[in-house]
Task: inverse folding
């Protein structure tokens, strides 16, 4: 009698523990994994066409350098901020490459996934939240920025335009730049109704930034009333930071640049997530 | 009493221009198939989206929801982790092939790669898609895409399967194949919530059917009961009502219920012989005498004319 009771309790206990084990397996993946899986999705799609996606980031700076080194550069003999023109422009390209790729990814790319392919609708039915989806995408755009910066770095290093090893840190600035342009592009995209409206973003914001952030020429000689504007736009800070990294020469102002970038990512990112959420969940 | 997997109480959803779900309540028991019928725009898809967190319901103190005991408002991940969703539109990743689509989703569920590959092989076989494992999505037919989306929804071995019009636009073979698979899944313990426009489908696989109209529940019950309780046994459909014009009188009205619409006139009755005699006086291409089905219940419940939201 006594023994049977013990056996019964034991049996109950084991069924309960197996049940519990089953239950505990029913725990959704943790945050880091959810972000990683979104990142992984984008990475898989990107690397699927490794040739057509992976080669242009290397070819573009090559063309640029050829054009400038063989053509334009021979006319510009003045040094800029103490650098030869090739080095001046080359270091700028390290971050503009990151800017362009992240801006495209998170404007046209995001819009197409959102409105045409409905990729997000499917993903949101799996254990991911809207926040996971958007933050994962931002991290991916940052990664792309890092890769594009790295490609430029390779070309610059091969042709002896910049000096290793300090400039090996430049892709990190590329990551920050990519992230920064990812959040601003997502915010813009959240307002856009038809895909053509994104053209305004590129001609009105991204292209001017290329010219007035000290990439192509130093901003110090621009009229004084433009100076505050230069200081406001994000790319200025990336450019200054990446040149400091390549020269391994830091000043207080670079701390301000770093602060600006991080604050920009956090603040603009917050609003981007908030607004995009409303388009994904109604 | 069986466990309730879904409990929905007084749930509403208001869009700027329309109330898509209007104070809806229903419950779904474990291991049953619950079917949701209703005209276009009735709010079926919206209801499903609220369940898996793609839509948020209106904030109302009376409204209450419990999916496996969780409220989608603040525990969407717990619900989604244990559910599989087949949305109304296939949203496969065109940039990836069949296997890759499934592999990516297995990552979302954090299924270890080796296990995922086994599971995917099993599911592709289960839905008879093995030959297409390495095809591009654009190479698949509509029926194959649909089956692939179902396979994707089954990756995590869900306790609850949510299917929004799983068989719309598919040929009869594929439709029967999907029904067979759904029956099998139910037998293995899966709870199924589905919407459909096919009455036959509801009759074949649903244990309970709810007919919705303009966001509200009109009737609910097992398909056979709905038939027995809500409609006469037989119907005589007349393409040309003129032939019987002289017989539309009070004595006829006692025997049959007359339903007139643009498409024709239907006479409903439990008295087969009476309808047969009526029909006897007509040319055979002018009438059709048959048993009533769920579609008749549906049309009776939701009205025959189109409303502006459809
Ligand atoms: N995102 C949205 N914004 C505004 N209105 C919406 C939205 N989604 C659905 N509606 C409206 O809500 C109502 C219910 O739509 P829903 O898609 O739930 O219908 P349904 O029963 O699934 O119809 P169908 O059989 O055609 O799929 C419709 O009037 C529709 O116009
Ligand atoms: Mg629908």
Result:
């Amino acid at each position: 009698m006594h023994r049977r009771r013990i056996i019964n309790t034991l049996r109950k206990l084991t069924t309960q523990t197996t049940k519990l084990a089953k239950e505990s397996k029913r725990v959704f993946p943790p945050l880091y994994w959810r972000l990683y899986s979104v990142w992984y999705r984008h990475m898989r799609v990107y690397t699927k066409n490794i040739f057509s996606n992976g080669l242009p980031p290397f070819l573009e700076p090559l063309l640029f350098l050829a054009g400038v080194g063989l053509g334009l550069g021979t006319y510009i003999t003045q040094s800029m901020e103490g650098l030869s023109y090739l080095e001046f422009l080359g270091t700028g390209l390290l971050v503009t490459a990151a800017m362009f790729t992240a801006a495209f990814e998170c404007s046209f790319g995001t819009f197409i996934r959102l409105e045409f392919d409905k990729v997000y609708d499917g993903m949101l039915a799996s254990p991911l939240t809207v926040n996971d989806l958007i933050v994962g995408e931002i991290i991916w755009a940052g990664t792309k920025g890092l890769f594009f910066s790295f490609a430029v770095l390779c070309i610059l290093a091969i042709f002896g335009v910049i000096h290793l090893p300090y400039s090996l840190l430049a892709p990190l600035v590329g990551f920050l730049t990519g992230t920064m342009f990812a959040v601003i592009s997502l915010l813009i995209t959240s307002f856009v109704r038809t895909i053509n409206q994104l053209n305004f973003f590129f001609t009105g914001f991204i292209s001017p930034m290329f010219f007035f952030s000290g990439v192509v020429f130093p901003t110090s000689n621009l009229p004084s009333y433009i100076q505050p504007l230069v200081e406001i736009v994000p790319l200025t800070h990336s450019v200054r930071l990446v040149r400091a990294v390549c020269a391994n020469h830091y000043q207080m102002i670079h701390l301000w640049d770093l602060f600006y970038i991080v604050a920009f990512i956090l603040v603009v990112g917050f609003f981007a997530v908030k607004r995009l959420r409303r388009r994904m969940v109604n | 009493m069986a466990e309730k997997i879904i409990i929905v109480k007084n749930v509403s959803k208001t869009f700027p221009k329309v109330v898509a779900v209007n104070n809806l309540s229903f419950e779904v028991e474990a291991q049953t198939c619950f079917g949701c019928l209703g005209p276009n725009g009735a709010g079926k898809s919206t209801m499903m989206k609220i369940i898996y967190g793609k839509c948020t319901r209106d904030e109302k103190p009376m409204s209450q929801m419990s999916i496996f005991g969780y409220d989608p408002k603040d525990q969407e991940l717990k619900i989604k982790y244990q559910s599989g969703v087949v949305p109304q539109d296939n949203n496969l990743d065109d940039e990836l092939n069949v296997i890759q689509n499934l592999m990516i989703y297995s990552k979302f569920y954090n299924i270890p790669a080796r296990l995922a590959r086994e599971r995917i092989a099993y599911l592709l076989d289960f839905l008879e898609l093995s030959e297409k494992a390495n095809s591009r999505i654009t190479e698949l037919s509509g029926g194959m895409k649909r089956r692939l989306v179902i396979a994707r929804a089954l990756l995590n071995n869900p306790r609850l399967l949510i299917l929004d019009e799983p068989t719309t636009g598919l040929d009869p073979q594929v439709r029967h194949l999907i029904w067979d698979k759904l029956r099998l899944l139910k037998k293995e313990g899966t709870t199924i919530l589905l919407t459909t426009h096919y009455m036959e489908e509801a009759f074949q696989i649903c244990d309970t059917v709810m007919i919705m109209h303009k966001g509200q529940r009109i009737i609910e019950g097992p398909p056979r009961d709905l038939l027995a309780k809500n409609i006469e046994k037989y119907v005589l459909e007349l393409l040309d009502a003129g032939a019987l014009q002289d017989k539309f009188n009070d004595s006829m009205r006692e025997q049959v219920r007359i339903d007139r619409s643009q498409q024709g006139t239907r006479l409903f009755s439990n008295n087969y012989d009476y309808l047969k005699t009526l029909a006897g006086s007509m040319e055979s291409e002018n009438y059709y005498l048959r048993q009533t089905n769920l579609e008749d219940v549906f049309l009776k419940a939701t009205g025959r004319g189109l409303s502006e939201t459809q």
Q: What stands out?
A: Chain A touches chain B at residues 26-29, 33-34, 37, 40-41, 44-45, 48, 117-119, 121-129, 281-282 (CB under 8 Å). Chain A has one domain: 37-280.
